[in-house]
Amino acid sequence: xxxxxxxxxxxxxxxxxxxxxxxxxxxxxxxxxxxxxxxxxxxxxxxxxxxxxxxxxxxxxxxxxxxxxxxxxxxxxxxxxxxxxxxxxxxxxxxxxxxxxxxxxxxxxxxxxxxxxxxxxxxxxxxxxxxxxxxxxxxxxxxxxxxxxxxxxxxxxxxxxxxxxxxxxxxxxxxxxxxxxxxxxxxxxxxxxxxxxxxxxxxxxxxxxxxxxxxxxxxxxxxxxxxxxxxxxxxxxxxxxxxxxxxxxxxxxxxxxxxxxxxxxxxxxxxxxxxxxxxxxxxxxxxxxxxxxxxxxxxxxxxxxxxxxxxxxxxxxxxxxxxxxxxxxxxxxxxxxxxxxxxxxxxxx
Length: 349
Description:
Blueprint: E1 4-18, E2 29-44, E3 49-54, E4 59-64, H1 65-69, H2 86-89, H3 93-99, H4 104-117, E5 129-135, H5 145-161, H6 167-182, H7 188-195, E6 198-202, E7 205-210, E8 219-224, H8 231-244, H9 246-256, H10 264-277, H11 283-294, E9 298-302, E10 309-313, H12 320-329, E11 333-338, E12 345-346
Parallel strand pairs: 3-5
Antiparallel strand pairs: 1-2, 1-12, 2-5, 2-6, 3-4, 6-7, 8-10, 8-11, 9-10
Helix pairs in contact: 4-5, 4-6, 5-6, 5-7, 6-7, 8-9, 9-10
């Protein structure tokens, strides 16, 4: 017998067009969505468990339903939702201890689920469910995979629990959960995954949004360097350089923050040079930038840097095939994507 589907949500990934590191210091960043997605489905089951399945990681975690039902609810009302590091972890100490032997990406993902599950709705009314998460976003590549996971999970849990929340408060909840993955996230990743389209972000606030229906078509090829990177480490490298060359880096951050879609090729080229000055480049990124330049195209890293993904602005479509051939022959993985799609949404099956 087929399980009853309670909720199905879908969140896009993200690209930072400009301001990867300036956003950490309260300056402008421009972000847009990309049509690579994380999906979360919640099914009603009847075996006395809560099952969390990560299809891409070939991993499933099971908790007895009664164990989670008997946990204290983590918040008194919807406005009180916070993640305060060790203080918050102590509230679910038994559950947290069980996860500490797991790989970091799995333990963090399970923690985010637990904090959301134990905060939404009335725990006493909970029944057995199976949560299935799948994604075509590469992990740790600067495309917002952790925020897409959090946002899609939160949307599905609120839907399945039949609890209403306005978008601004929903976005704040997702930012709180991103602290599990990134320590002190800027808020730009969860915001673009929530709202979609393109956003101008500054000092922890969404300043302006362009709806996905109003964006010009931007053709971009994403190239995965296949070099793992760590956002926290890259931010710290930038911060260390800031303490040595304060005036220079502040000027770099200011210059890096602007943007004009009509001059996107020039912006990409300038932005990449500035990011290299911040010590967040990598030889593989330089190789991709050089290949793009030989095809008269501009490229830049997206995200924290040190590896991850490079985006190439395809303002000349006639170069596409020769560009892809060269990238593939050099061993790179590419994605031909659409930018500026809608944010998280419920899928109607």
